[in-house]
């Protein structure tokens, strides 16, 4: 019988399952360990704080100065994104990483309609499940007017979603977008490249 390694007993998803006092304690510790000394960067990548953890983090006064927020791989889902979008404490954030968080169209709706995250210039949403519906919501309703860099790779977006984004007039400052590893056809990509919102970009990755 092979010996058990530390990989076998390590459980990175544990915080996602915590509640009550244990959750409070865990999140207090996590924020303390990952917040930069100047309070401007919070790197929670891979901690799996979950939507329960987000209820705590979005009320933690220590995050009020955060400019760069990394929440990659935390399984926060649509509910967690809504909590983030409504959290006044994150009003200074201008860079957000939300890759690998089980975010769907509903989460996107909350995110791009946020009245709090109006300073965001860079938004990474790779490896979620935005799909065509979410892409269309972004194309139609995006309110993050300062957005310059957007990553939507690996989001199950097809021709309809990519074309909607390519035709959108809701991204006045956008200079770079990543849409690789989605479901669009070669023909769809070629058509999208010449549409107004994509044609103006400095970087287009389809």
Walkthrough of the structure:
This protein has a single domain (7-205), classed as Ribonuclease Inhibitor (Leucine-rich repeat, LRR (right-handed beta-alpha superhelix), Alpha-Beta Horseshoe). By secondary structure, the chain is α/β, with parallel strands linked by helices. It starts with 5 loop residues before the first helix and ends with a strand. Residues 1-13 have low confidence and may be disordered. Helix 3 crosses helix 4 (50-57). The relative contact order is 0.10. It is elongated, with a radius of gyration of 18 Å. The chain has helices at residues 6-9, 14-17, 20-34, 50-57, 77-85, 105-112, 131-141, 159-167, 186-193, 196-199, and strands at residues 41-43, 68-70, 95-97, 122-124, 149-151, 176-178, 203-205. Helix 6 links the parallel strand 3 (95-97) and strand 4. The chain has ten helices and seven strands. A seven-stranded parallel β-sheet has the order 1-2-3-4-5-6-7, with no helix packed on it.
